Amino acid sequence: MSETQQQREWAPIHGLPYRSVPYRPERMPEAESRETAARLRTRMDERRTVRQFSPDPVPEQVIRDAIACAATAPSGAHQQPWTFVLVKDPEVRRRIREAAEHEERVSYGGRLGEEWLAALRPLGTDEVKAHLTDAPALIVVFQQRHWLGDDGAKHKHYYVDESVGIAVGMLLSALHLSGLAALIHTPSPMRFLSEVLGRPANEKAFAVIPVGYPAPDCRVPDLVRKSLDQVLVEV
Ligand SMILES: Cc1cc2nc3c(=O)[nH]c(=O)nc-3n(C[C@H](O)[C@H](O)[C@H](O)COP(=O)(O)O)c2cc1C
Prior knowledge:
By secondary structure, the protein is of the alpha+beta class. It is 40% helix and 15% strand.
């Protein structure tokens, strides 16, 4: 972390221009760049969503560092519209599981509709969410839909879905590259998360991310990812 980052605290500067500062990162030699990209491609392809967790504890600082990585994400107008709640307390995880399973029973019971249920069927997921209590930690991500000025005025945040989605992608990458497994879980609807965690009205739950090590008998669906040819169009 640079000296400047350590010393300066973020504060909203709504309506004011930023001072501009030089940005001259050292250019990576091409060979190193190629090697880094190829290695990263392989490492990222090894990431899998895990749904069966070991209760073994994980180094908490690794999770905090991953959250700090996520918080470096770009965001619309640099509004950083996210809050990450790290839940370790077993009783709070139990309450989250109970409420999530309540919603999921209704969802899998038909609320999702046949098309959505058909899309989920290949994964074999159901309303039992043991990962919420098995994993030693949950990161509950909230979107801040707006912020309140000192005078109580409501200011809209822009591109909140995109910004938080990018931050969560960076979080999942950081956790994976640091040796931890995760699942992005989106029990729908997620209002109960604000209630259980006592979050303010400007925040809306985005996802619950159990984090830990895979259980010794963990299995994952043998899914196939699209090839580069199928996702890349070069013009
Ligand atoms: C926005 C989003 C929501 C998801 N919600 C759930 C969920 O509620 N439950 C679940 O088991 N998996 C969920 N997943 C995980 C996907 O099913 C998983 O990423 C996909 O099957 C591909 O598997 P992989 O992550 O191992 O590549 C979600 C993924 C994303 C990106």
